[in-house]
């Protein structure tokens, strides 16, 4: 019976270890769930923006995918810029494609070199638009859009831009993160209650074994 008691005590220890593992995993689970929710939300936003103007950026996306894979950046940067000039003929489309480019910069899977190249595309595109192809009103519009999204003095530090974008994003999705935290804590509370019920059940079994042991001792003493 003592062996059985030790086995039951070990089950309690194992349950405590599992409960602690659940608690320790909450930060990582929260980070993963928030990241997944943000990616989904940002993707839906971008899809809606593109759908609203019936604009297909798939060809540009294919070029950018190659750029992010580390292929010849000079030719791909030129190809990206060329596609933008040929397909973005209105202020509305320019704003849309700029939003798309910045969404690619903020992508956590993007390399710093990729971000830097995209920012150079934006910078060169803005420069040429401002000085060659736009009316004064259009120039003001594009400057407003770009200045609201990026500081060109940061072009040589894409990591800083990404960090700044992530900070803004974290603030934007603070409520979402808080809701996920609440759900995870509620899930943990459920596990904790299950653990308490399980321990109570095991302790009852141990108490019964102790009673049996004492009863056998009494019989052995002739009581």
Topology (SSEs and partners):
Elements: H1 2-52, H2 58-68, H3 73-87, H4 91-106, H5 112-133, H6 136-149, H7 158-172, H8 174-220
Helix pairs in contact: 1-4, 1-8, 2-3, 3-5, 4-5, 4-6, 5-6
Write up what this structure looks like:
One of its GO terms (cellular component) is perinuclear region of cytoplasm. One of its GO terms (biological process) is intracellular calcium ion homeostasis. It holds the Pfam family CID. InterPro entries: CID_dom (IPR006569), ENTH_VHS (IPR008942). It is a single chain. By secondary structure, the chain is mainly α. The protein has a domain at about 1-25 and about 150-220. It has helices spanning about 1-50, 60-70, 75-85, 90-105, 110-135, 135-150, 160-170, 175-220. The chain is rod-shaped. The model is unreliable at about 145-155 (pLDDT under 50).
**Which structural class do the helices and strands define?**
mainly alpha
Order of helices and strands: HHHHHHHH
In DSSP terms (H or I, runs of 4 or more residues), the helix count works out at: 8
Low-confidence spans: 145-156
Q: What general form does the structure show?
A: rod-shaped
What's the mean pLDDT score? 81
Radius of gyration: 30 Å
The main pleated sheet reads as: none
Q: What is the strand content?
A: under 5%
Terminal residue distance: 21 Å
**Percent range for helical residues?**
over 70%
* Beta-strand segment tally: 0
